[in-house]
Design goal:
The chain is α+β, with helices and mostly antiparallel strands. The protein folds into three domains: 97 residues, no CATH class; 292 residues, Outer membrane efflux proteins (OEP) (Up-down Bundle); 67 residues. The protein is 65% helix and 15% strand. It has nine helices and twelve strands. Strand 10 and strand 11 form a beta hairpin. Helix 4 runs antiparallel to helix 5, helix 5 runs antiparallel to helix 9 and helix 7 packs antiparallel against helix 8. The two termini are 34 Å apart.
Length: 489
């Protein structure tokens, strides 16, 4: 937005300078007549000459110098020039800022850099990599301090105890493997998101190209019908044809105008959609004559195994299996370790001899424990649920593979048909359409055919051109889908 307002201000200054130049130029070089109507409907004619100006007001003529004429009417003249130039320059600036032609390869590159959905997938990978640190978690170490008469009724002893509980080591190893599989799942999700983004960018790009080409075709058709309206009106005035032909010409012209408006709306919609995929702050336009995409000649059903969606489900199966292993290991006992350090103030009988121990004498020891589950049913339920989850993902994988196989075969057949259709239009159809337009136009102007035959001729020719655009777009859309299914770019 800052760039936009900066250029707008710059062009406004250009417009002021240009306006001053125009006034000076008119003062020295031009003889011009400017007529306008005032608020009170007073007709005024300002006749500007190099040396003087004649102002005609209410039927009275007054000769004044050029500068005085400018004082009388020139400020409005300068304001009009300034306004027109400001609009022209600012509109040109807006067009330069708002639209930017980019080829397909650059569009894909911009999307891979800016698209927030792809960034989100990358952050998911970072998140899982950080979470792997939680696999080896010993938990918190417990520290207890005890003071009191736990050894005698006279003396206050103290005890310091350290204890640590943790899961069986194989559980932590299984959790580490699970986190590793989750990292690879997030990475595969990132690859899938990237492939889907490339597919959407390409599909939208070629859909926008189709809309632009169709709009250009409608403009060509509108130009033909505008000429048709002029010819029909001329022939009607000269009595060569009926009023019906004139009405037919105007009707077709209005119809094409409406179609142009709808096509222009489609262009804006696909521009905005492309802007969304690219993740840019400003709309972008494209090279409308984008070439046909290439498709490898040795495509077979084997390439489906490379599909990123299948790879994602395969990784999900590995995650489910790793999770099941973790739940199985949780049946193993937890381990606890302890250490204590305490005083036992007082006399102790040691081998028949009374010996006194003060507060400076401390006694130490350690403890080891195991925690077994007394009720296995809850954990068995988690293990069974993890096994069912693995079966669910395997079923989803097989279903997705079947769908992709069917789609691949379907798109492959559609590709062959679309390729044949496009080859026909490129080799014959377009040539016939151009020749038909030329012949129909020439014959109608010469009066050799009527308006009915003329309309039929140009309608058929334009329809051939439109079908070519449809076939061109359809072939590219099919290739884009085949490239995604095969895991290509």
């Amino acid at each position: 937005m800052n760039l936009y307002f900066h250029k707008l201000l710059l062009n406004a200054l250009k417009a002021v300078c240009f306006s001053v130049f125009v006034v000076k130029f008119y003062q020295k070089m031009i003889h011009h007549t400017f007529r306008y109507t005032t608020k009170n409907s007073i007709k005024t004619l300002l006749d500007i000459r190099p040396d003087q100006a004649t102002v005609i007001r209410d039927g009275r003529t007054t000769s004044v110098s050029f500068l005085n004429a400018i004082k009388i009417q020139g400020m409005k003249f300068v304001f009009i020039i300034f306004t027109i130039c400001s609009l022209l320059f600012s509109n040109h600036s807006i067009a330069q800022v708002a639209t930017r032609q980019i080829p397909l390869e650059e569009a894909v590159k911009i999307a891979l850099q800016n698209n927030p959905q792809l960034k989100r997938a990358a952050y998911k990978v970072d998140q899982q990599q950080v979470l792997q640190k939680t696999a080896f978690n010993l938990g918190k170490t417990q520290v207890n301090y005890t003071r009191g008469q736990y050894n005698s009724a006279i003396n206050n002893d103290n005890n310091i105890t350290l204890s640590q509980s943790f899961e069986f080591p194989t559980i932590m190893l299984a959790q580490n493997r699970l986190h590793g599989e989750k990292i690879r799942l997030a990475q595969q999700s990132h690859v899938l998101t990237k492939k889907e983004l490339i597919r959407e960018v390409k599909a939208t790009y070629y859909q926008l190209a189709f809309s632009l080409q169709r709009l250009a075709l409608l403009k060509q058709q509108d130009s033909i019908y505008q000429n048709f309206v002029k010819l029909a009106d001329l022939r009607y005035k000269t009595g060569e044809t009926s009023y019906l032909e004139k009405l037919a010409a105007q009707g077709k012209s209005n119809e094409i105008t409406l179609q142009q408006q709808q096509a222009a709306t489609d262009v804006v919609v696909y521009q905005q959609q492309l802007q969304r995929w690219l993740g840019t702050a400003e709309p972008s336009t494209i090279v409308s004559d984008a070439p046909v995409l290439n498709l490898s000649a040795n495509y077979s059903i084997v390439v489906i195994e490379q599909n990123p969606l299948l790879a994602y489900f395969q990784q999900q199966i590995k995650v489910a299996e790793a999770n099941k292993s973790v739940e199985k290991n949780r049946l193993l006992p937890n381990i606890s370790l302890g250490y204590f350090n305490q005083t036992l103030i007082g006399s102790q009988n040691i081998n028949g001899t009374e010996q006194y121990f003060g507060s400076d004498k401390r006694f130490t020891g350690f403890s080891v424990g195991l925690a077994f589950p007394l009720w296995f049913s809850p954990q068995q339920g988690k293990i069974q649920a993890a096994g069912i989850e693995s079966k669910i993902v395997q079923a989803e994988y097989q279903n997705t593979k079947n769908e992709l196989t069917a789609s691949f075969n379907q798109f492959l057949q559609q590709y062959k048909q679309a390729k044949q259709g496009l080859d026909y239009y490129q080799q014959q159809g377009l040539k016939q359409a151009n020749a038909q337009l030329h012949i129909a136009e020439k014959a109608y102007r010469a009066g050799e055919i009527g308006y009915v035959e003329y309309l039929q001729g140009i309608t058929q020719a334009i329809n051939i051109k439109e079908q070519y655009l449809i076939a061109f777009n359809q072939l590219n859309q099919i290739i884009i889908q085949l490239q995604f299914i095969s895991g290509g770019n």
